[in-house]
Amino acid sequence: MINSSADTPCCDWDFNLTAVISYSSPSSDAIGVLEFDPTNSLLATGGIARKIRIYTAANLPILKEGCDYCIYTPAKLSSLKWRPSSGSRLLGSGDYDGVVMEYDLERRLPVFERDEHGGRRVWSIDYSAADPALGASTSDDGTMQMWDTRCDAGTSVATVRPDRSAASPVCCVEFDPIGGPTVVLGCADRRIYGYDARRAVEPIFVLEGHEKAVSYARFMDSETIVSSSIDGSLMTWHVEDRQLIRRYRGHVNSRRFVGLSVWRGGGGGLLSCGSENNRVFVYDRRWGDPIWACGFEAAPQQNQGFVSSVCWRQTAGECCTLVAGGSDGVLKVFEGRPRPRG
């Protein structure tokens, strides 16, 4: 393990606020999830308002309020994921009622519905980059369900129960976005589990080090995973040797989901998360302390808001775009530019 306290952060970036998008009913509009589509042309948001809002990414810097259109959902949303290779057409969701749905955005209608989790809240969904019809969802019921959109609802490809002794909730799932066979889970039992999606029977690795529930696990690349926990830390891990690389601290996270996103474009290496002190944080993978943070103003109806979701736009250029959503329903868009060298 690299001792993060000995690292001296060096910020090679300047971040500037480019847009603030708000709505008229912040008390019931907390944003729980943000997702750019595979073409980076659309942004989808979801949360407790029972709406999927769709934005044209190119228009974000000029918006003050409103979106391109809304799709109304039957329950509060905890997760959104665009199906790979569908462009901007197919968007999956997981909700508080334990249901996974997929929407066709051309028709703005649901095209399938699954309920493999017995009505227990779905925390996360994802699709395989190697086989875009293969998806997975995780839930309060202590399982990851893998399913095939070409098969009837109720027919799972595999049921995985990482914590077999206590059936701890499984909080997150992500397939290797590069197309490798690994799928990674974060669990309330404080562990991160990796499985081979081709035969998801026993974990191929288990990572231990967090002190509380793991809320998110993301691939930085095929060899590196970053995880987030309500112990107030992020961690990066080397997959092959199962070793902790670095621990990141600075944000506040003791009981809520506050988002985690990795920027893989333009050389990558940037992490972002929200915080319970109503700020958005950016870390460079090389240093354990944040390189940048920005506060949100709490809405008048709230004593203390929090930043509840973050998402990088996965562009390949030198500049980057980060979108953060708050518990008051406000979206903020930031642009990052590398500082001149020399």
From TrEMBL:
GO terms for cellular component: cytosol; nucleus. Gene3D superfamilies: YVTN repeat-like/Quinoprotein amine dehydrogenase. The keyword Cell inner membrane does not apply. InterPro entries: RUP1/2, WD40/YVTN_repeat-like_dom_sf, WD40_repeat_dom_sf, WD40_rpt. One of its GO terms (biological process) is flower development. Pfam families: WD40 (PF00400). Keywords: Cytoplasm, Flowering, Nucleus, Repeat, WD repeat. WD repeats lie at residues 207-247. It is found in: Cytoplasm, Cytosol; Nucleus. This is E3 ubiquitin-protein ligase RFWD2.
